[in-house]
Amino acid sequence: MKRLFSFFMPGGILVLASVLTVHTGAGYATLPALIDIYPYIVYPAAVLVGWRFNRSSLVFAAVLLAVADRTCLYFLSEFPFAGALGRGVFLAAGTLLPLNLAVLCLIKERGIFTRYGIARISLLSLQGIFMALFLKISPARALFYLEYRFIDKDIFPGTGLSQPVIAAFMLAFAVVLLRFVRNQGAKESGFFWVLMMCLICMLEADFKTSSVFYFSTAGLILCVSIIESSYAMAFRDELTGLPARRALKEDLLKLGSRYSLAMLDIDHFKKFNDRYGHDVGDQVLRMVASRLSNVSGGGRAYRYGGEEFTLIFPGKYADDAAVHLEDLRKDIESSPFVVRGRLRPVRKPRKPRMDSGSTKRVSVTVSIGMALRDEDNPRSQDVLKAADKALYKAKKAGRNRLCA
Description:
Number of helices: 16
Mean pLDDT: 84
Low-confidence stretches: 343-348, 352-357
Order of helices and strands: HHHHHHHHHHHHEHHEEHEEEHE
Strand content: 5-15%
Distance between the termini: 34 Å
Strand order of the largest sheet: 2-3-1-6-7
Number of domains: 2
């Protein structure tokens, strides 16, 4: 449910609201006045916010949407399109736009005015120049490729979409969805709903008022995704996916008068890291974080720093929280962790060789210190320090235990 919520909010809501606005009488009546200012606010805002937070792919996507919007508005003011040029512009936009958005979703952030950023801007510009020349010099041949039929059947009859356009959107949706499944980030979900908005725009093929509104809403979704992804970078730990220390500090200020707090540390993590390498150490951190995120009793887990984690149990006395923390400690201790060999092949062979040295099972344990908010520890900082002292006590007593 949490993943679904992060996927649909807020991009899905903006797409739904846009469709309802266009297809309701009262909403559609406001579009002529709205589109006079909407794109001139959204596109510059998306570019400025993306530049400020150094999100180059989102900046390029906003520019791409703005160019597509103005191009369609200029060439496609009438539908059905008159002549090969209008039809060619429509199909070229429908083919290049989703493919470029999918590529921008995949690429790493390399800056805007760096050599990588300039190369990407040049590539996007060359695509437009090449397609414009192709449509001008040989519109019939350009239409042949843009209207090529892979199968002898109309997939979306009456919409004007050719099979290459449909294939481009299907490929782009698949790429962005797979990317979201892997990263579950605001950027990926934002690109998905931008693609959805562009597809709706192409399906309706009304390039007088609704297209400007749809493209501008796609730019708004990009702007929101920039803010959300930047927020996630500040408040969520990238390695483990848990809320970071800044989120912990803010949540401590929102707690009531009754809560328990625990500090957790992975036992002998430095020796483990030195022996097996930092990559394996990162895997251990992710494994422990996954157990912490599923802690019972309403506990909330945070990565405090390094191999240390913090858990908050709002409304819980120490005895109640201790039961859930002890279950958590036992769960981590009983979870087998396999250290894979360095020579393990990238792909699984058809006849794998039995190599006893290729994997090794190791035990991962944690020490936990717990404290309760009471008269001796009235402030959250006091409770945190008390839990840290209890953690030191657990380590000194032999580790792999809970102390209060």
